[in-house]
Amino acid sequence: MCYHSALMMAVDRIEELREEALSAVASVGSTSDLESVRVRYLGWNNCSAELTEIKKGIRDLSPEERREVGGAANKATKEIETALAERREESVAVAEREKRLSSEAVDVTLPGVPYPKGSLHPSLRVIDEVVDFFVGLGYRVAEGPEVETDYYNFTALNIPPGHPARGMQDTFFLDEGLVLRTHTSPVQIRTMLSQEPPVYVVCPGRTYRRDSDPTHTPMFNQIEGLAVDKGLTLGHLKGTLAAMARHVFGEDVSLRLRPSYFQFTEPSVEMDVSCFVCGGSDPNCKVCRGAGWIEMGGAGMVDPAVLEEVDYDPEEYTGFAFGFGPDRMAMVKYGVPDLRLFFEGDLRFLQQF
Ligand code: DAH
Asked: Which atom of ligand 1 is nearest to the CA of 157?
């Protein structure tokens, strides 16, 4: 074998070993296999590998040969070591990930931690039913501020300063002509001032009076309604409210209007719904107390003085308005004896609905 081809064979063999080693490193499946690949190609202690043998033989070569064979052998060794190190790091990362996955494993089949479940407040249920009913008729929902000016709460509703009707409202007065609104009726005025007729609005909201006993709380809810159009009559008012009562209390109830008085309606009425439990047949009925009727609130035809206040022409337009208490309605509907229970925030009470 000539000298030149012996050299070439050594270099070729190194190249072969390098390729073999690299592909072995790439294909091993475990760290222990990785270790045997290392031993096979780079040797370990007394256990020699072909590549190390080649390196050992280098000292017998001529200086030029040494450079060539030595260079190739070193390069191959380095590449194999690098590949081994990379795979080792990779396997450490994989092991770490697996350890984390198993330590953080969540058993999705375990039952979860139950969240306490809320429920709709009984007043809110009635408000929703009433509002849904009116929205179904084409009414719009309107709202106003709970801190109201004296003007909207009283004066514009035909209750001028000094009028005795003001004294009946047990008002919470704030600074400088401001009050906590005593009813949702000021929303009527705000609505009419903000648009031209026809008006069809329903206005739910919180209202306040200095009052506290089993059937009165300082804060309570009201639902106001207002319709202003050409040719509206008390008949429209009665038909509308009777349909609403049937929607909330059931198909069998009927509506009764009694003459009453409010500053902002003329004529004014008080509206009662026939008892949805006994229909008037049980003198010991817990809901109507034998009366056969349940009081719902006030209503009437909008007083022309109120229409004039908002620049609506009372010769052209008439309107009806109503206001009732959804808390009271919820009390009778769900048989709750004390209104104060509604606002104590006791979950045991609220969760019954
Ligand atoms: N605002 C009245 C009150 O709280 C209730 C009321 C009566 C409202 C007649 C109305 C109405 O819209 O027409 O006592």
From this structure: 1
